[in-house]
Automatic annotation (TrEMBL):
Belongs to the SmpB family. The gene is smpB. The keyword Cytoplasm applies. The keyword GTP-binding does not apply. GO terms for biological process: trans-translation; trans-translation-dependent protein tagging. This is SsrA-binding protein. Its main location: cytoplasm. GO terms for molecular function: RNA binding. Keywords: Cytoplasm, RNA-binding. InterPro entries: SmpB (IPR023620), SsrA-bd_prot (IPR000037), SsrA-bd_prot_CS (IPR020081).
């Protein structure tokens, strides 16, 4: 079944890993998440999220589409009113000819000028930082989800971990009780 032959997705989540269809009215597209920065969710409090395009070379696009990218320890910095993704690791494409490529080079992010000015103002005024959260494909394009974040303190991390463990314990207890109730019948 081809997607272009009248088949329409609206807000449906696929069963396959990290693929979902997102739609608004008659306009829909498929989003495939290629990488996430799980450490950022633990270390930072996310205040606002933005979607940005990324300027890449051909071998980088091919490598990212294979899922070979690491956002660990990467961040976004605005230099001369241009946002750059710093310290993101993209290994060389396996079938590429040549060597000597810089796998951690700064990569320019594509945002609207108004958004860049707002982010620069927020970063300087409120002592915040920007980190990438996800890399995904939207239609045929690669996008980076960046977030304006504030660092969590130690007690906030511990409290969040405790709440998570309590929630998991409760879910396990409910599943166990439900399994026992169904088993007895």
């Amino acid at each position: 079944m081809a997607f272009g032959s009248g088949f329409r997705f609206t807000g449906v989540k696929f069963c396959k890993k990290n693929i979902s269809a997102v739609g608004q009215g008659s306009f829909t597209f498929i989003v495939s998440i290629l990488a996430t920065n799980r450490k950022a969710y633990y270390l930072f409090k996310i205040l606002k999220v933005y979607e940005a395009g990324i300027q890449l070379e051909g071998w980088e696009v091919k490598s990212i589409r294979q899922g070979r990218i690491s956002l660990r320890d990467s961040f976004v910095k605005i230099i001369n009113f241009e946002p750059f993704l710093i310290n993101a690791y993209i290994p060389p494409y396996q079938r590429a000819q040549g060597s000597g490529v810089d796998t951690r080079r700064p990569r320019k992010l594509l945002l609207k000028k108004k958004t860049i000015l707002f982010l620069k103002n927020e970063l300087s005024k409120r002592h915040l930082t920007m980190v990438p959260l996800k890399v995904y494909t939207k239609r045929r394009l690669l996008k980076v989800e960046i977030a304006l974040v504030k660092g969590k303190r130690g007690f906030e991390k511990r409290r969040e971990e405790k709440e998570r463990s309590v929630r998991l314990r409760l879910e396990n207890d409910v599943e166990e009780a439900l399994g026992m109730a169904l088993g007895k019948e």
